[in-house]
Here is the input.
Amino acid sequence: MIVVMQPGCKPEQVDHVVQLVRQLGLRDHVIVGTNRTVVAAIGDKRNLDTSAIETAPMVERIVPILSPYKVVSKEVKIEPSVISIGKFGGLIGGKKVGVIAGPCRVESKLQLLEVAHAVREAGAIGLRGGAFKPRTDPYSFRGLGEEGLELLAVAGEQTKLAIVTEVMSVEQVELVCKYADVLQIGTRNMHNFGLLQRVGQTDKPILLKRGWSASLDEFLLAAEYIVNEGNRNVIMCERGIRTHETYVRNTLALSVVPAVKRRSHLPIIVDPSHGTGHAYMVPAMSRAAIAAGADGIIAEVHPDPEHALTDGAQSITPEAFKKLMPELRAIAHAVGRDL
Amino acid sequence: MIVVMQPGCKPEQVDHVVQLVRQLGLRDHVIVGTNRTVVAAIGDKRNLDTSAIETAPMVERIVPILSPYKVVSKEVKIEPSVISIGKFGGLIGGKKVGVIAGPCRVESKLQLLEVAHAVREAGAIGLRGGAFKPRTDPYSFRGLGEEGLELLAVAGEQTKLAIVTEVMSVEQVELVCKYADVLQIGTRNMHNFGLLQRVGQTDKPILLKRGWSASLDEFLLAAEYIVNEGNRNVIMCERGIRTHETYVRNTLALSVVPAVKRRSHLPIIVDPSHGTGHAYMVPAMSRAAIAAGADGIIAEVHPDPEHALTDGAQSITPEAFKKLMPELRAIAHAVGRDL
Amino acid sequence: MIVVMQPGCKPEQVDHVVQLVRQLGLRDHVIVGTNRTVVAAIGDKRNLDTSAIETAPMVERIVPILSPYKVVSKEVKIEPSVISIGKFGGLIGGKKVGVIAGPCRVESKLQLLEVAHAVREAGAIGLRGGAFKPRTDPYSFRGLGEEGLELLAVAGEQTKLAIVTEVMSVEQVELVCKYADVLQIGTRNMHNFGLLQRVGQTDKPILLKRGWSASLDEFLLAAEYIVNEGNRNVIMCERGIRTHETYVRNTLALSVVPAVKRRSHLPIIVDPSHGTGHAYMVPAMSRAAIAAGADGIIAEVHPDPEHALTDGAQSITPEAFKKLMPELRAIAHAVGRDL
Amino acid sequence: MIVVMQPGCKPEQVDHVVQLVRQLGLRDHVIVGTNRTVVAAIGDKRNLDTSAIETAPMVERIVPILSPYKVVSKEVKIEPSVISIGKFGGLIGGKKVGVIAGPCRVESKLQLLEVAHAVREAGAIGLRGGAFKPRTDPYSFRGLGEEGLELLAVAGEQTKLAIVTEVMSVEQVELVCKYADVLQIGTRNMHNFGLLQRVGQTDKPILLKRGWSASLDEFLLAAEYIVNEGNRNVIMCERGIRTHETYVRNTLALSVVPAVKRRSHLPIIVDPSHGTGHAYMVPAMSRAAIAAGADGIIAEVHPDPEHALTDGAQSITPEAFKKLMPELRAIAHAVGRDL
Here is the structure.
């Protein structure tokens, strides 16, 4: 941490800051510059809220130096983590690019199996589908519950796809673990620390979606919560952020892919469906994600988007998915990856 | 809902959209304009995800007409709701402007009582304080738990202040209800629909903070979740949004105050501490909030911000709070309100 | 500037950075911390692009310490600047809060005089009105040109109001200076450095609007461009920023008022019309601006907003303005100011 | 345009809106729905500011139906425009993906020729370089001026690359046209309508960069300004937008690529250098851009980024560029394009 003093600060004000730094158990180092005096505070106290020093007299601002996360960072592990999903050999990370696809929500056995077979044939390794769906609107239907989980498990067995489904609260974790291969933490729950800790105590891989307006540090800290509980199998997932743009539901911030890879050993995949909100953009942004170095995508596929009960506007058809996969494979090869 | 067709669409494509509209149980009304044909869909189906029509051939986009919330809107109740907090007569809404203040987190009995007495003398009607604190960083300390709640209850009794404290999960609701007068739903939980429904089943007033990047519709829909369960006592709270600005922790969007008042009968207060992140801005933005028509503020006050365990940078001292209150009172009077 | 090295960097890589720092004419100071080594670069080289050091091996990032502006900062002048506008004694800054009002665009002599007399009677000190209007849409009408300037000058004489009007290009400066008392630099031109320099060579006060997505540093740097040319009479103006919010045309970031006052001696006013985009919000946000400590407001007033050729949606009527002014005066007094 | 009335509006208030619609020369069509009455206004009046109707009594809001641009849209021309740049056969658009590369700023003949030869050999078709550089900071050096243009022209002749350089004001247009093959309109000037019109009167292709916070409609309207003057050769360029993200200089919004292609016949390229601000991200985001369907990229290449006078942090070396080009070519082929 660097404490920047205001111009014109007095020696006793610098001393006061030095005392505050020492009270935190940190070493101090004062540098008198041409226009500013700064106090460098040395030592690893990531767990302290040191911003309070800002309120000391004549302090201009505090500049943190250490990133707030540690176990997910490359400080701890250099080589990329490869994460195994499900019992049929699916891998995400390292050389392996993996594609997960399926409907927003499980609507019926027929719908689910139709999609599952189609995406499996096209080369997906995972089947997504919501049994419990968070709905911003209290009047919307909210999913089939355990029946949906059972259907997912059946579809997974039939098609040899890993099942990826969202868990929305601490109480659901045990139930969802019975059926799912990968637990998804949704955007709305990225900051739900109790839930992060609970899934960190399971042995299932976690697919962690970035919060709508989460900073990169917050995204990595959410993963840190999970890994800290002993579960190292976290797959990060970019799904778009809120910006001023209105032609998309969210702005897909693909730069986060190289940014995460520079800072962390964890794999990162991309959700082009929520990340755009419009089916016509999904193929383009899926290709872009793989080209940017993402370790996979998770896409919404529905046999009849016009009549989908949720998220129809951003779901592509099985036909569109079938056409997309060879393009993704060619791009993966162009960047030295396997899909 | 209005379905806008692309230029050059064919009659059978318009017919196809008309069929989709009718399948939703809505009446259709086709308007052929100079450059665009639109299909108006008439009827109240707020509970349907109608965006899927966007994927029909030659549809350009869907424009919703009805707002997605209803019971919190002025369609249902014109006059502003006045909400009673605690047993000592505190009111928020209508003519009444109410101030809630206290430390970010309960640290000790001494700290809490010092602040409670100070803010009470200055004219506050509520005492805020965290017993369970969500921390973005897994290494930060996270509160005293039930001991903190007990201290809050004691301080409330001694000072005749209503106790406002955050409830972070469904499981905590019962416990927090034992001690608190107002349940706060934090920013990170505005989209936690299970929690919203659970607090909607209590008889405590709810202080609902806006999510970091929540739209106005989503903010009002979160309140709708609560009110739908039978609890009409919701106090909205603006606490800043994520933008490109870096000189603040969040950008305090005060225009939301007149915007909520135009659409809803619920009161809205402002959090100038989280809404800026810097103690030096808190007095200015508290004054601005009342001038904009807010029904109150909730501010962080700490006897020794330099040594606060959390949020010190945005906490003002009891002295600063004492100086602020008469200014707020004068401004409340200038806008025809009581404080 | 602080250069933060990556963990695991080698001594020769630190040395390489030290060399780069010295080549810039700065002194170096290496601090070896527990987890990070940093190189502090000492000396005032605000004029150098030092970010290139980021590309040196094992550099994590660059942290600037000095703010990039100087002559507009409190490092150079502590007491607030008070700026005189026009020949009728209008003042903005220090104790004085000043209100500027008028139509978006000069449409006719009748319209202009009606508004001018109305706002003068209510207590305004300046008359705004566009003669040349930037229009995002190439099909919109773009103003009366010099005829509009003449009408403004006549109205100013008749009502003893200072004339505030926008200058949009270097070539217009001379012409506009013949008629106007204050030159307005619009949002779209905040980064037009040639224009900033040109108006910096005039002896007219400059009203500088913040760019749509300008950071605080960029806003102050734009003022620095003007002051550097010798014109110290710059009035900053917040007019809203682009965010994800859609219920407003822009998000009015009132925290910028205390933020500018902490950093600079220049006065700052607020535009509640562009800053919201909706007439119904203008009174609330005008009051909030004064309460936040703004040195004035600039508001759009039109005798018949429904038929205004431009910006009708955000224009208030003379009657609404007349009702607003006593509220603003009461709030100004509550914060120790005169209006 | 659709005018949405508030619930509870009276027939005479609807009539009043109908009158306003007719006064604009539009036809009216009233639809009485279950909860809302709307007035559809029919006719093409893109050139009117119709938002003023919002201020009429009991109007809730105005919903535009027509997009505000026309000549750049697919309403006018379906097939994608292919734009020829320079005299050496470079093409951008249709099947052709084109790469433009070079230093941020022309620093010396040696520097420029080294880069020009390197990027030409690697397969670029254009050489970028700034002769006049807008600098946010008034203390930064601002380019070689005409000498820089001469060096660019020499380098273009030697290497058979089209010269792309920024024109910053109306007065510079004639001079820059003497030397450049493509005129670049920078981000800060996307809303400089006088400049857009002036370059629209030249016969040079225009590379139009998106404004920092420009909406998609504003971006296309800026192109409309140019095309309206007779110059149809506009190349759109995404270069990142301002968001809350701080690990990048700008957030590269690649979804704008399929969005522009859905709406317009104009080609669109991507600037991965300004669009990220960090050299380490440039290869990943260049690949992503081509995969998303962009018609090319414009990248900053500098022989010695550590010592670049400007934008060193985001410049890649000629070696990195040479390694990148075959990857881009493979991705172009994967999406059915030539590079």
Observations:
- Chain C has a mean pLDDT of 93.
